[in-house]
Amino acid sequence: MGRVSTMGGWAIATAAALAAAPAQAELVNAQNPQVIKQIVESQGWPAKIVTTEGEGPYIESSRDGLKFLVLFMNCDDAGKACKTLQFYMGFDDAKSTTLERLNEWNSGKRFGRAYRDESGDPVLEMDIDLDFAGIPRENLGEAFNTWAALMDAYHAHIYEK
After folding, report:
1. What is the pLDDT of residues 32-87, one digit of tens each?
2. CA triplet 140, 142, 145: central angle to 5 degrees?
3. What residues contact 10, with CB distance under 8 A and at least 6 apart?
4. Where would I find the H helices in 43-114?
5. What's the CA gap between 87 and 143, in Å, rounded?
6. Could you tell me which residues come within 8 angstroms of residue 105 by beta carbon, excluding any fewer than 6 positions away?
7. pLDDT digits (tens, 9 = 90+) for 2-22
8. What is the spatial distance between Cα 49 and Cα 34, in angstroms, rounded to a whole number?
9. 53, CA 20 to 30 Å: which among 25, 28, 76, 100?
C-alpha cells in the first residue's frame, strides 16, 4: 500500500506543478499583417492593410481623430518576411513647429522620436522589434497602448502654444 500511495503522491505533485506552470504566450511577429491588423482592431481602432508591389505592407488606422500608420519594416526584397514594425504619424498643418520644440520632445520622451520629414512636417515614430520568434501578443498590445499615449502627448506638444 505504501508504494501505491507514494506513486499517487507523485502523480498529484506532478499534476499540481503542471497546473501551476504558466501557459505559453502566443508569440506574434511581423510576418503576417493580418494578425497585426487584428491586434489594431482589438484596440477598437479601424485598420486597413495596404500593399504595394515590392515594398513592405502597412496598416492605415486612426484613434480619436489622429491618423497613423503601422509600417512593416526590414522585409525581404518581395516585401514579405518582415522583422520589425514602425508606428508613424505626422502633421502637415504644423510646419511652423520649431526644431527646438521637437528637441524638447526628444529629450523628455523615451519611446517615441520626433523629427521633421522631407516635407517639413513634424512626425512621430516608434519602432517595435518582432524578429526571431516574435514577442508575446500581450506585449504588442501594450506597445499599442504606449503608442496611443504618445500620440495624444505629441499632438498636445505640437499644438501647444
Report:
1. 999 999 999 999 999 999 998 777 899 999 999 999 999 999 988 777 889 999 99
2. 120
3. none
4. 99-108
5. 10
6. 114, 154, 157
7. 555 554 555 455 444 444 445
8. 8
9. 28
